[in-house]
Amino acid sequence: IRDIVSIGDGGRCIKELRQILKIKDGRVYIVNERQRWIDIIERNSLFSIGNFIPNNFSNLTDVPIPSESIDLVVCY
Hints:
The chain has 76 residues and is of the alpha/beta class. It has helices spanning 14-20, 38-43, and strands at residues 4-7, 28-32, 51-54, 72-75. It has one domain. Helix content is 17%, strand content 22%. The longest helix has 7 residues, at 14-20.
């Protein structure tokens, strides 16, 4: 497992998943309506945990992630 997408939250479990699954590198995409200050607290990091991709869930569109490039999807 290398590349991860987190949908619907700020990436709160990405650090733990990387430790548990022994993921050292790879891309992380965070797909959510907006970035929130509470995301910093939830993910226990001042720094971004991946590439944020804004997406309006009431008007779903294609997300700019290359096809067949993701190994794990986490949904909230």
